[in-house]
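Possible regression after last week's pipeline update?

I re-ran a chain I had predicted before the update to compare outputs. Posting the input and the new output here so someone can diff against the archived version. Not blocking, just want to make sure nothing changed silently.
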Amino acid sequence: MAVRRSGHGPDLVLFHGGMGSWKHWIRNVGPLSERFTVHALDHPAYGDSAPVPRETTGPQYLDLMHALMLETFPGEAPLRLAGFSFGAAIAASLARRLGPRVSHLALISPGGFPARKFGERPIRSYKEAAGDERRFREICRHNLLVNMLSDETSVTEETLDIQVECVRRTRFDSRKVSAGGTLLGDLAAVAGRGGKIRLLWGERDDSAFRPARLLIGEIQAAVPDLDLHRIPKAGHWAAYENAPEVNRLLLEFFDGA
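New output (post-update):
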């Protein structure tokens, strides 16, 4: 598992979203590194990390992540975890498995809910590009505005470069975890042992296929007195679209006792 480390201080581990890499945190690593040793991961079969067998299931993938975490972070030093979307489901699973060693768990628009059919998601297939680079970037732009970002001005050429690279280096179907139904049970267990949990959710991360009130309500039912913050001017990828506010809230949370 590829890990990019920066900064000094307590350990903070960042878990990216589906079809992503550590670059999902590209606007956050610097500010967080001023107070923490930041470990920005490429999950197995993403970015620079090694692939996994095609038949790997969601539970097997979570088992692998647990084993890799124990290998990468041996000992008993406290860990702070932050996860986005698919990565938030992973982070919640690890927080449950690692027990009191995880002192703080921050989730940004998490996946890991039970598989259900809501409204249609009007994405386009990357196969439509048929090797045409310009068309591939157009599809990436379209899908970013459906799945990830709320404002067309958020999709710069740099943003497209990140998305193109991430899509092409994805070798595991994150839906095996994101629709695996593990999130709520994991959060209830972490909350039950007194673990600190903060949920960040973009104000514009709300759609027919991702109903914010329903999903946030399910988390609130699992986590009494949920520490919830809606991020203004942000969609699903809030850590990118409104990085200053997300960075402020993460630093405030992780600095807390």
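Follow-up from reviewer: compared with the archived run. The two ends are 30 Å apart (CA to CA). Marking as no regression found.
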